[in-house]
Design a protein that fits this description.
This protein is α/β, with parallel strands linked by helices. It has four helices and five strands. It has a five-stranded parallel β-sheet, with helices on both faces. α2 runs parallel beside α3. The longest helix is centred in the N-terminal third of the chain and has 13 residues. It is globular and about 30 Å long.
């Protein structure tokens, strides 16, 4: 079965490129531009993994992460945080499984995906 990944990032260029790369590698990718839209999307189509940007408008990465972990239907979904500023990563490292510092390589991305989800 195809693994579904939700990309939550307000930087359209990055989100589109990551979605395209994931699709080329056999994943189903969807995009949400902020945490509120991500939570709405997750209620409709539960992803297998979330790539979550730290700094976003409306609902930021930490707020989204806390909402995911508080939701009984979503709390077990692996989350990979993404940021251009490593110092902005949430200090609550037990809440997420990995972090990617932008810009990141395909190799770095797929290393985390394979560790968390197995092969595509």
């Amino acid at each position: 079965m195809t693994k579904r990944i939700l990309i939550v990032d307000d930087e359209f260029g990055i989100a589109d490129i990551v979605a395209e790369i994931l699709t080329e590698h056999g994943y189903t990718a969807s995009i949400a531009i902020n945490g509120r839209l991500a939570l709405s999307s997750m209620a409709e189509h539960r992803p297998d993994l979330v790539l979550l940007d730290v700094m976003m408008p409306v609902l930021d990465g930490l707020g989204t992460l806390l909402a995911i972990r508080a939701d009984k239907a979503l709390h077990t979904i692996p989350v990979v945080m993404m940021t251009a500023l490593p110092e902005a990563l949430p200090k609550e490292t037990a809440l997420y499984q990995a972090a990617l510092v932008k810009p990141f390589t395909e190799e770095q991305l797929f290393k985390h995906l394979e560790q968390l989800l197995g092969p595509a």
